[in-house]
Structures are given as structure tokens and as C-alpha cells.
Write a structure and sequence with these properties.
- It is a single chain.
- This protein has 63 residues and is mainly alpha-helical.
- The longest helix has 38 residues.
- The chain is built from two helices and no strands.
- The protein starts with a helix and ends with a helix.
Length: 63
């Protein structure tokens, strides 16, 4: 068994070793996520429109 007090001390020691991102890094990462999400939404919009067009053609063919 691990001593609970030693565990808490280890957690505290590890917490002080964490390096948090700077505000510039956070802003850059956020902007990258937003831009990529926007590009993905545009891509899927075009893909959806193309597939809808093709499906309309297939369904309009009467045998």
C-alpha cells in the first residue's frame, strides 16, 4: 500500500513541474482549431451538395 500522505506530496510535486502554455500558444492553438473546423465544414458542405446532386440524378432516372 502507498502511504496517502506520500501520494499527496508526490501529486503536489508533479503539479509544480507542469509547464502551462503561454497565452500566445493558447491563442495560436485556438485559432488553428477554429480555422480547421471552418475548413472541414466547408469541405463537408461541398461534399454533401455533390452527393445530393448525384443522388437526384440517380433518382430521376425512370426505367
Amino acid at each position: 500500500m502507498i502511504n496517502p500522505f506520500k501520494f499527496i506530496q508526490d501529486v503536489k510535486r508533479e503539479a509544480f513541474r507542469v509547464t502551462w502554455p503561454t497565452s500566445k500558444e493558447t491563442l495560436t492553438g485556438t485559432l488553428m482549431v477554429l480555422v480547421l473546423a471552418f475548413l472541414a465544414s466547408i469541405f463537408f458542405l461541398f461534399l454533401d451538395q455533390i452527393l445530393k446532386f448525384l443522388l437526384d440524378i440517380v433518382l430521376s432516372i425512370s426505367i
